[in-house]
Amino acid sequence: MGERGHTPLIGITGHVTETGAGYKVVAAGQAYVDAVRLAGGFPVLLPPVSEHGLIEQSLARVDGILFTGGKDVDPAHFGETVFNAKVVIEPQRDAFELPLARIAYERNSPLLAICRGMQVLNVALGGSLWQDLPAQLPESEIHHFQKVARNEATHDVEIVRDSRVGDLTSGANGTLLPTNSFHHQAARSMAARLTPVGFTTDGVIEAVEATDRDFVVGVQWHPEHLVEDHASHRRLFEGLVTAARRYRSSRDTDSR
Predict the structure, then answer these.
(1) Would you tell me how many other CB atoms lie within 10 Å of the CB of residue 16?
(2) CA distance 254 to 17
(3) Which of 10, 106, 177, 248 has the fewest Cβ atoms surrounding its Cβ within 10 A?
(4) Is residue 115 annotated as a catalytic residue, yes or no?
(5) Of residues 15, 144, 155, 222, which has the active-site annotation?
(6) Within 13 A of 33's CA, how many CA atoms are on the CB side?
(7) Any idea what the CATH number is for the domain that residue 91 is in?
(8) Nearest CA to 235 among 163, 157, 168, 160?
(9) Whole domain around residue 79: which residue ranges?
(10) What is the pLDDT of residues 63-119, one digit of tens each?
């Protein structure tokens, strides 16, 4: 077996950002890269492209996908208009990530979807979103966008024990998983092909998975900032890399 078979390639979805006057780069947070490497994968940046053929090629060249956080999914994709000025959309990312998520699901490609990524996954498969939690769920006592450092856990998520996410994250606190929180949107109506497996006390869905796929997992928090100090969050990335290794092996076998 070659080196590539030992180290799965994990595609990390990137975004275009402007760093100076008219100077743009394609980027992804260093924490995602570090978390993939810590889990035993090799991170590969995927630039947002809209051509269907290139999206398929992006998926064909990696063994697993990490959908990253960012700004908001355009509510037009789930039949709504923009709710308020806090909704800031990223059309270029939508054009890439929504079809990428659909194709990955159809092909049983391993994927871990984080924050915006979980929202992309839900919308891609037919679900909808809360566009602005503070405005639409004003009675909630949970602060879903924390003010403290990203490596600090600020609230618990109740994880369904009999689930893939539960198997990966269960620890000393049983089904209660301390997490960080940096979002103002969340899954509202669930896509039929996804099962909610994590909740905060205000009822917001914080983790989902596809029970008919090898590894299709979405989490609303940012585990990449918690991997160094918390094994439960590190195991989410290890689960992705392990599934990607199996996926690579099965593709190698099929191609012989």
Answers:
(1) 13
(2) 39
(3) 106
(4) yes
(5) 222
(6) 8
(7) 3.40.50.880
(8) 168
(9) 3-254
(10) 999 999 999 999 999 999 999 999 999 999 999 999 999 999 999 999 999 999 999
